[in-house]
Amino acid sequence: MKELMNKVAVVTGGNSGIGLAAAKAFVAEGAKVVIVGRRDDAVAATVETLGSDAMGLTGDVAELTTHDRLVSLINNRFGGIDIYFANAGTNIITPTEAVSVEEFDTQFATNTRGVFFGVQRVLPLIREGGSIILTSSIASEKVLEGHAVYAGTKAAIEAFARSWALELKDRRIRVNVLSPGPVDTPILAKLGVAPESRPEFEAQTAQAIPLGRLGRPDELASAALFLASDDSSFVTGVNIRVDGGMTLA
Ligand code: NAD
Questions:
Q1: 224: Cβ below 6 Å to ligand 1?
Q2: Stretch 27-38: mean pLDDT, rounded?
Q3: Residues 187-221: pLDDT tens digits?
Q4: Is the shortest distance between the CB of 140 and ligand 1 below 6 Å?
Q5: Closest C-alpha residue for ligand 1 atom 33
Q6: Which spans are transmembrane here (predicted)?
């Protein structure tokens, strides 16, 4: 029996990296999956790859209209959802002295406001026994240079998750956090590491990780699948770090 048979899932940022790996895992386990991404072409290409159990919605999670359009789509097509994976996120590494108001606002709008209002808007449609998963980062706990704003955005959503875990208990909706360490996804390429410096960057990063390497998107997808499925039926309000031990090192 597949783990997510007859379930409907939403994955924000589902056309790249961790979200894409999770969307693939959810479809493979029998779910219908709606991915939310910013670019029409990327969303369409991903839906084609995922197959007929996938649908796409193009929109920016920082815009409330995106969540309202998602609610209409769910109402029209499914009537409700079982899994909401708030995974889309952005990271601008800047020393505190150099952070612009625009950089600050962009990160909070995507990583924090986008998560809060995304959950708020879909909440009436989440079925009893559903699962909400928020992608945070070990940066919320482990001090990483230039990550103050990003860390703040992620610490806030961890607090949301703890509040929601209790607030939603009577509907048996579980709320958990997934905190990746460095994972080999396109977000790393956007951190300003030049392609020629990439091997050195990876080697240096790997040295800071007890398991000695970057994580893979499928390793995060496995944890997301655990939190999405009934395998985690007694798990709520926790933060699962998938970081090769980096937080402890
Ligand atoms: P990625 O760049 O491959 O994927 C991020 C996805 O989010 C993309 O599809 C992007 O288009 C989407 N996105 C970003 N801003 C958006 C917006 N405003 N509206 C809609 N979609 C938006 O990177 P990833 O590594 O898969 O990142 C997924 C999550 O994991 C993010 O929340 C990120 O902060 C978190 N994370 C990643 C790492 C890592 O090392 N890769 C580490 C810790 C946490």
A1: no
A2: 98
A3: 877 776 777 888 888 888 899 999 999 999 999 99
A4: no
A5: 89
A6: none
The torsion defined by the Cα of 165, 249, 212 and 192, in degrees rounded to 10, comes to 80
Span 75-85, mean pLDDT?
98
Predicted confidence (pLDDT) per residue in 117-146, tens digit: 999 999 999 999 999 999 999 999 999 999
Q: From start to end of 13-125, where are the E strands?
A: 32-37, 54-58, 81-86
For ligand 1, atom 23, the nearest C-alpha belongs to 187
Give the separation between CA 132 and CA 10, rounded to whole angstroms. Answer: 10
Q: Is the CB of 187 under 6 A from ligand 1?
A: yes
Task: Check if 84 is active-site.
Answer: no
Count of Cβ atoms closer than 10 Å to residue 29 Cβ:
17
pLDDT digits (tens, 9 = 90+) for 221-235: 999 999 999 999 999
* Domains of the chain with CATH codes: 8-248 (3.40.50.720)
Asked if 208 and 8 count as a contact pair (C-beta separation under 8 A), the reply is no
How far apart CA 7 and CA 83 sit, in angstroms, is: 8
